[in-house]
Specification:
By secondary structure, this protein is mainly alpha-helical. The chain has one domain: Protein Binding, DinI Protein, Chain A (2-Layer Sandwich), CATH 3.30.910.
Length: about 170
């Protein structure tokens, strides 16, 4: 019995020593991309590139709102055929607006992926270098890890932002 107890204590000591050498950090990757200089530049470029399309969508939405308001005001005065015709026109314009919005969304996603690809590649390199330099066993994405709590001392987001700004000024 005594030998088993000593053996268990010895195994616990060895296991605790192995766990003591394990160093895990967490990074909020979306926050790094949003706050680092390269990410800010990419976001500004996207905004300026798609501002014209956004303005078109806003104007089309305004047009649809006024058309709907006009249709509601005239509903009692119009004949059944005229009312049906106006409703058909309105529905067609709504479909056109939705198609335009979907096209805009697809173009925006494609441009975002194109701009974020080099940033993500560099971010992976920066995280790997930071992990090796500082002796981390693993650095996990805080958003996708499924972890409910992370000690703030293990959150490396600000340090990685600083490293990204050095790597991609």
């Amino acid at each position: 019995m005594y030998r088993i107890f000593v053996l268990l204590i010895g195994m616990c000591c060895i296991a605790s020593q192995a766990f003591a050498e394990t160093k895990i950090g967490f990074v909020n990757i979306p926050a790094v991309i949003a706050k680092c200089e390269a990410g800010k530049r990419a976001m500004n470029e996207l905004k300026s590139q798609f501002q014209g399309m956004k303005d078109k969508l806003d104007a089309k939405k305004k047009e649809l709102d006024s058309m709907k308001e006009e249709l509601q005001k005239q509903a009692m005065m119009l004949s059944q055929d005229a009312k049906l015709d106006k409703e058909t026109q309105f529905k067609r314009k709504v479909r056109d607006f939705q198609d335009m919005g979907q096209t805009y969304q697809a173009q925006l996603q494609q441009a975002e992926q194109k701009l974020s690809k080099p940033i993500m590649e560099k971010l992976v390199q920066v995280i790997q270098a930071y992990g090796k330099k500082n002796g981390y066993t693993a650095i996990l994405d805080k958003q996708g890890s499924g972890v409910a709590y992370v000690d703030p001392a293990a959150d490396l987001t600000e340090a990685i932002i600083a490293e990204m700004n050095k790597a991609m000024p």
